Amino acid sequence: MEAQASWKKMNLFAVTWPLLIDSVLRMMLGTADVFMLSRISDEVTGAVGLANEIIVFCILLFGFVGIGTSVSVAQYLGAGKKAEASKISALAISINGIFGLVISVLLVVLSEPLMRLIHLAPEQIEIAKGYLLLVSSFIWVEALSSAIASILRSNGHTRDVMFVTLGINIIHVMGNVLLIFGMFGFPEMGVMGAAVSTVVSRFIGLLILILLLYRKISVPIQWRDYVRFDRKIVNLILGIGLPAAGEQISWQTQYLVIFGFINIIGPTALSAHVYVMNISNYFMALGMAIGLGTEIIVGHMVGARAFNEAYHKLIRSLKISFMLAFVVVGITALFRKELLGLFTSNPDIISLGSSILLLSILLEPGRTFNLVVINSLRAAGDARFPVMMGAVSMWGISVPLAYYLGIHQEMGLLGVWIAFAADEWTRGVLMYWRWRSRVWQSKALVKPSGEVLAG
């Protein structure tokens, strides 16, 4: 009864709306930097925007432990195994903390070579290198925050995580105002002011998340569980997390390659892409929120062996997300020039960006389709299929098509975004076919007794 009650008490709207606001607020962290730095120049915005792609790539890597943890904890809670869920949580935090420190060191050492690798011009490297160095030094903070936030969400505390993100945003924006422009007697630090504000706000957010972790979860984590290595738990987390990481790495590396194509196309295309992506991120937030909310509920259902309910939960979530994506992107397209005008007054950038936002009416429903189904497949323990099919689509469709249309056919940025759309729809259809096949029902991580399934 306990396991059944855990998912029956969950409502998709109640779980999802804090996730949506949390996702939007996280997007606003990056948008705040882009918006404020655009007041200095489009060149500064392009340089920091491109450097931030490296940071985003690393944050996505930290998410692989978070994904593995979220699915494992949700299934164990669904099976009524709260003590085991607590042990999984402790080891996940330790793994991500160590991983974060390693990535911080690597980024500090390799920051300039990485910027050259993605074809950032020497003058842009000069602008962005201090920003990247400082943010990279404290990227381990984001690693720990990612793991703890995943644990809290899986326990149903999505609103608490949302409020923490809201606080981080307020601190970040205030810090930007004070340090980028030197308001109220603070030093005018420009790009470095944005970096300092980013680091301080994230560190404060981490401290609050740690406090919530010990106040909110039903079985508190024991200190010994942070250092007690349990191969079974590690395999459980990485069995879901590593394939998810493979998909994220594949997506981000193909995106960085395509970013290199955009750089070849020219600075106008680069600036337009950075600005449009900052708007498109909010479209993705909708799909990610519904996908993550469905993942949490489906994970509890699968842990309780309620497979039929899980199947229909995804179908209902998909219909909702598809409809909302069309509505939100359609409204945004109507005001595309006004939105781009918030970032720049350059008519060439606004014209090009407007064309891309019109194309998003086709692209974004496909991306949302993809996001929601993949999350539910992972929640059921079916993590390998999405990464295999994703790699085939990204590197077999997205990258070659972006080069062919964008550079060879001289369609520029529009050709690149057509390639994005083709990839998203291809993966979305493949993932939906997998869900309809119900193969995922054999992939559950725990038996009713709580024993880990082999393989």
Shape: globular
Please tell me how large the radius of gyration is: 21 Å
Spans of 5+ residues with little confidence (pLDDT < 50)?
Answer: 1-5, 450-455
Distance from N terminus to C terminus (CA atoms, Å) equals: 28 Å
Count of DSSP H/I helices:
16
Strand element count: 0
Reported for the largest beta sheet, the result is:
none
- Strand fraction: under 5%
Q: What are the secondary-structure elements, in order, as H or E?
A: HHHHHHHHHHHHHHHH
Roughly how much helix do the residues carry, as a percent range? over 70%
Mean pLDDT metric: 82
SS-based structural class?
A: mainly alpha
Tell me about this structure.
The chain is an all-alpha fold and 455 residues long. The chain has 16 helices and no strands. Helix 4 (82-117) runs antiparallel to helix 5, helix 10 (231-265) runs antiparallel to helix 11 and helix 11 (267-303) runs antiparallel to helix 12 (307-334). The two termini are 28 Å apart. The model is unreliable at 1-5 and 450-455 (pLDDT under 50).
Annotate the secondary structure layout.
Layout (H helix, E strand, L loop, with lengths): L1 H7 L3 H26 L4 H37 L3 H36 L4 H16 L1 H16 L3 H23 L10 H26 L7 H4 L3 H35 L1 H37 L3 H28 L1 H6 L5 H33 L4 H25 L4 H25 L18
Helix pairs in contact: 1-11, 2-3, 2-7, 2-11, 3-4, 3-5, 3-6, 3-10, 3-11, 4-5, 4-6, 4-10, 5-8, 6-7, 6-8, 7-8, 10-11, 10-15, 11-12, 11-14, 12-14, 14-16, 15-16
